[in-house]
Protein: Small integral membrane protein 1
Organism: Galeopterus variegatus
Amino acid sequence: MQPQESGVHYSRWDDNSRDEVSLAAVSSTEEASCCQRVSRKLCTGKLGVAMKVLGGVALFWVIFTLGYVTGYYVHKCK
């Protein structure tokens, strides 16, 4: 038995009136790499949403602080 290939099959001109898109699953014998597993865990589901919110808040504060410090030195009285 050969492993399944992962990919997308798009069949627009079948007899059905609707377009069909099918995804082939990755074979169960193949194991995801460490980076893919961590990425999948941290970027999906409730944990993924929480990580994106925390990242957005952290980015906001970094930009705010840089703007504040820059504005302070630009508008500093001599």
Remarks:
- The CA atoms of residues 65 and 71 lie 10 Å apart.
